[in-house]
């Protein structure tokens, strides 16, 4: 609006700055903004996609507005009978449902009124009607206000899930059977989640607002969490949760349970759908289809924000103008924590933030901001803690604080969902690892299982006499065709021997003794000077999992490029043995 006023003044559109026209136009634009905002929010709720909603609003409305004005002008010109006049009147009122049309038509009315008066004043007639006090754009104001209010109420009703059934049907598209990739873990987890969906009697964990201090009696909670890991009840679960952004599917029918007393790690490359999962679980965005269950009850997006979930988002959600202590006080107030002093002191100590207590959050280093954000998620005793890459940018000491907090929370029976690229964190904390790829759950298993199934095996690093590495690799392939090349340099050969592999349709298992036998044979026939054998780590699994094709398939001696070698060498640098 301000911009419009400045433009009108700058370019001095005489018609619009005449007398009371400017304030009248400002009111018109204000009401237009109100109607458009309400409309775009409704479209966003219905189509579940902000950019599509904006496109429909602006393109659709602009088309209706321009076409409407053009049709009315034509009807004006050809107007001969009363019937045409009536049709024009009705059409005019119907078109007023479009804010763009109403704005354009209102501006035309104001311009017409002013130009007419400027012409007639030459003949001594003052026909100027004040648009603020006389009915020049009165109908336009009313139309914009009514459309805006109706859409605002509709938006409110959709937000309150009064139209849940209808909007879910509008959003969902017919889909074929579950993809082949969904077999195995994903299907098994879906079955487990369905079976486990009997309401938990536990509604809250003690007093969820009491903070995480030790004084709280966690007896009842521990009873729930003391069940063995495999059978722990899910605090939260998703059933075929799906989120689409236009044609792009960010999350494909995710069925995942987050059991009490455990940390579940969500791993995946960039864009795999981790943050989307968090946004869905916190009610920040609506699912395209699928359900979320919290403590055994089916919940909607509104229920998700009722205080049962703590969330550390990927980007720091803190007010830069508040000090660390003030930030914690604010969150204590929001959570309704009574014993504030005690909880804040414990939080500052646990996350080693005592010396920054009176520093403005905006002046903290990146890692300390992250710590503050994570600390907030551990205040209160919510049954579910969601941590989206909490340790990114943290030093090892700070990572330890976060690990301790997660362990403390899960020991107390709370459930944690942790998304991380720091695989060491996942290895330290997670009982189960969910591997996401391109929005699909590809694997869900304990660490040992992942080791066994995804690239788990033995990493062999050989020092070869200069120039002998290719011959050594040929020797490895002749004896172990299932070996996967990692590094091939003049004097270095690194390869992975998977624990299990299928060679010529035969399932083979590699034992440590087989590895040493192979290396002994290689030492006899090739120029291997020295070697080390490590069991592959979670990092290795992650890399193997993300590889589109096995390197062994893609590589032949002549196609080994320096880039590929460098890449594999870098990958190996991150491998730490278990
Ligand atoms: N608002 C949006 N509009 C369109 N596409 C989106 C939007 N938000 C996410 N996406 C898409 O959804 C997919 C999953 O994104 P998401 O942010 O969940 O990935 P991620 O696993 O959290 O990645 P990272 O590790 O980089 O944080 C990506 O392909 C992304 O481009």
TrEMBL record:
MF terms (GO), sorted A to Z: ABC-type transporter activity; ATP binding; ATP hydrolysis activity; lipid transporter activity
UniProt KW Kinase keyword: no
Domain of life, source organism: Eukaryota
InterPro entries on file: AAA+_ATPase, ABC2_TM, ABC_transporter-like_ATP-bd, ABCA, P-loop_NTPase
Gene Ontology CC annotations of this record: membrane
Gene source species: Euphydryas editha (Edith's checkerspot)
Annotated ABC transporter domain residues: 236-463
Similarity comment text for this entry: Belongs to the ABC transporter superfamily. ABCA family.
Major localization listed first in the record, in broad terms: membrane
This protein's name: ABC transporter domain-containing protein
Pfam families linked to this entry: ABC2_membrane_3, ABC_tran
Keywords for the protein's UniProt record, in alphabetical order: ATP-binding, Membrane, Nucleotide-binding, Repeat, Transmembrane, Transmembrane helix, Transport
Transmembrane segments: 22-43, 55-78, 138-158
Protein topology in the membrane: Multi-pass membrane protein
């Amino acid at each position: 609006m301000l911009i419009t006023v400045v433009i009108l003044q700058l370019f001095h559109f005489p018609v619009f700055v005449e007398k009371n026209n400017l304030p009248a136009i400002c009111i018109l634009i204000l009401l237009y903004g109100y109607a458009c905002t309400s409309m775009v929010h409704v479209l966003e709720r219905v189509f579940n996609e902000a950019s599509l909603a904006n496109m429909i609003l602006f393109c659709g409305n602009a088309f209706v507005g321009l076409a409407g004005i053009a049709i009315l002008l034509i009807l004006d010109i050809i107007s001969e009978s009363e019937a045409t006049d009536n049709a024009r009147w009705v059409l005019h009122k119907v078109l007023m449902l479009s804010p763009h049309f109403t704005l354009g038509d209102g501006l035309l009315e104001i311009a017409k009124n002013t130009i007419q008066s400027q012409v007639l004043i030459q003949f001594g007639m003052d026909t100027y009607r004040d648009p603020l006090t006389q009915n020049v754009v009165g109908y336009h104001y009313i139309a914009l206000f009514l459309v805006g209010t109706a859409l605002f109420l509709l938006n409110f009703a959709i937000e309150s899930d009064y139209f849940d059934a209808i909007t879910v049907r509008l959003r969902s598209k017919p889909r074929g059977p579950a993809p082949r990739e969904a077999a195995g873990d994903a299907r098994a987890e879906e079955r487990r989640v369905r079976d486990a969906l009997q309401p938990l009697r536990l509604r809250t964990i003690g007093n969820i607002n009491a903070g995480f201090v030790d004084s709280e009696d966690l007896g009842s909670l521990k009873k729930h969490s003391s069940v063995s890991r495999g059978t722990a009840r899910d605090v939260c679960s998703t059933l075929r949760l799906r989120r689409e952004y236009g044609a792009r599917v960010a999350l494909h029918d995710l069925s995942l349970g987050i059991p009490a007393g455990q940390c579940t790690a969500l791993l995946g490359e960039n864009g795999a759908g981790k943050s989307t999962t968090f946004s869905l679980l916190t009610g920040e965005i609506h699912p395209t289809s699928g359900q979320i269950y919290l403590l055994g009850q089916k919940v909607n997006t509104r229920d998700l924000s009722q205080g049962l979930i703590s969330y550390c988002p990927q980007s720091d959600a803190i007010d830069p103008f508040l000090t660390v202590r003030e930030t914690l006080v604010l969150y204590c107030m929001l959570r309704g924590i009574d014993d504030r002093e005690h909880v804040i002191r414990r939080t500052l100590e646990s996350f080693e933030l005592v010396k920054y207590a009176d520093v403005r959050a905006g002046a903290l280093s990146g890692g300390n901001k992250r710590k503050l954000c994570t600390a907030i998620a551990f205040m209160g005793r919510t049954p579910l803690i969601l941590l989206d890459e909490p340790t990114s940018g943290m030093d090892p000491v700070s990572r330890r604080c976060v690990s301790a907090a997660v362990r403390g929370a899960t020991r107390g029976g709370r459930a944690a969902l942790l998304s991380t690229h720091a695989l060491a964190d996942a290895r330290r904390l997670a009982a189960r690892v969910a591997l996401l790829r391109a929005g699909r759950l590809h694997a869900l298993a304990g660490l040992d299982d992942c080791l066994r199934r995804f690239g788990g095996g033995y990493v062999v690093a050989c020092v070869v006499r200069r120039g002998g590495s290719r011959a050594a690799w040929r020797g490895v392939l002749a004896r172990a065709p299932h070996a996967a090349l990692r590094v091939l340099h003049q004097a270095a050969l690194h390869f992975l021997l998977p624990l299990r592999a299928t060679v010529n349709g035969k399932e083979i298992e590699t034992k440590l003794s087989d590895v040493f036998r192979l290396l002994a044979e290689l030492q006899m026939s090739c120029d291997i000077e020295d070697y080390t054998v490590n069991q592959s780590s979670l990092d290795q699994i992650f890399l193997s999992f993300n590889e589109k094709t096995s390197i062994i398939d893609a590589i032949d001696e002549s196609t080994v490029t320096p880039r590929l070698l460098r890449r594999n060498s870098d990958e190996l640098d991150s491998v730490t043995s278990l």
